[in-house]
Amino acid sequence: MTLQEFVDKYDGEFVEVAGSSNAKNQCVDLVNAYLRDVLDHPIVEHTNARDFPNRLKDFEWIKNTPKGVPKPGDIMIWQHNKYGHTSIFLDGDEDYFHSFDQNYPSKTPAHKVLHTYIKPKVAGWLRPKIQNTPITMPENTPLEACMSDREKFWKERDDERKENKKLSEQINDLLKEKATNKDPIKVAEYREEIKGLKREHELDLDSVKQKYQQDLKNELARKDAVIGSLKDQVLLNSNDWKKRFTSRKFLLVAPASVFNMIVALIILMGFKPDPVALATALTSLNAVVALFVVPEAISDHQERMGTLP
Predict the structure, then answer these.
(1) What CATH number has the domain spanning 3-128?
(2) On the CB side of 239, how many CA atoms lie within 13 Å of its CA?
């Protein structure tokens, strides 16, 4: 099975492979299904997501760096809490990526999720040292995939309608024969045959109804999961902007920049302030800004590099 076939099979479904009865449909279940179905690898049991690197010794462990980009099929690992999180990388760049997740947000089925590398921070990813199965994603666009699913759905619906129409015609033909035939034995045979066809017709209609209802429930669950993921992403982005505009860097650098611009305009307009006093004021101001800004800038860089204690 390829990675795309795996995604097509489980998208919108809850996946349970192994583990405690109190912890079903976890992120590790989806990754274990990927190990089993795509990589033909033994599953990892009784382990939290954050500890997968210690159990998959035959995989290469690659730490997250500012320029690192995983490959399709790499197993992503988060270690931001005592359980962690794991998923399968699909596509992305240095800033954002899509992966195939389960239980993210909590209690959601398998679906495609947009992530950043730092909120929560990705610890790294696991890559098979020897890949028996080629892991590739198709060139199909989301629109082409949607059109393919749409054509398949309508073909199934048309086939079922044709079958139901055929059964209805058979029932009508028998009713006509029954009306023109006065032989009691034949009438009884027609009656039984008509009953049998009606039961078959009703069963077919029930099965179609149940199938469409289940498909609709799965589609609603998948859309709810996508909406939840987008809401989380919007919240993360809003918190990120809020942090930027309330940080010491912004609150100090912005006024300092405005002050320097005002001084430059005063000089351009022909005013000649005392050079020694001006140099002393600017040096003091920039020293104060650097004293408070530089530590925070170093902290932000360490957080991105993953070197914070």
Answers:
(1) 3.90.1720.10
(2) 9
Q: What is the pLDDT of residues 42-71, one digit of tens each?
A: 999 888 999 999 999 999 999 999 999 999
Measured on CA atoms in the order 210, 216, 222, 225, is the torsion positive or negative? Answer: negative
Residue 302, number of CB atoms within 10 A of its CB: 12
CA-nearest of 63, 53, 62 to 28 is 53
Share of the chain above pLDDT 90, in %: 32
Both tokens assigned to 85: 């999180």
For the CA atoms of the chain, what is the radius of gyration?
32
CA distance 101 to 15: 11
Q: What global pTM score does this model have?
A: 0.46
Per DSSP bridges, beta strands 122-128 and 75-78 are antiparallel
Q: At CA 115, angle to CA 32 and CA 217, rounded to 5? A: 65
Token pair, residue 229, equals: 């993921």
Q: Give 189-198 contacts, CB < 8 A, sequence gap 24+.
A: 197/167, 197/170, 197/171, 198/171
Q: For residue 86, what are the β-bridge partners?
A: 77
Structural tokens at position 123:
């610890």
Contact 85, 49 (CB under 8 A): yes
Task: Answer yes or no: are the C-beta atoms of 51 and 126 closer than 8 Å.
Answer: no
Asked whether the CA dihedral 238, 240, 246, 251 is positive or negative, the reply is negative
User: Could you read off the pLDDT of 156-198 as tens digits, one per residue?
Assistant: 777 777 777 777 777 777 777 766 665 666 666 666 777 776 6
Compute the distance between CA of residue 108 and CA of residue 67 in angstroms, rounded to an integer.
31
121: β partners:
118
Sequence-separated (6 or more) residues with CB below 8 Å from residue 77: 49, 50, 52, 53, 84, 85, 86, 122, 123, 124, 125, 126
Work out the average pLDDT over 246-250. 56
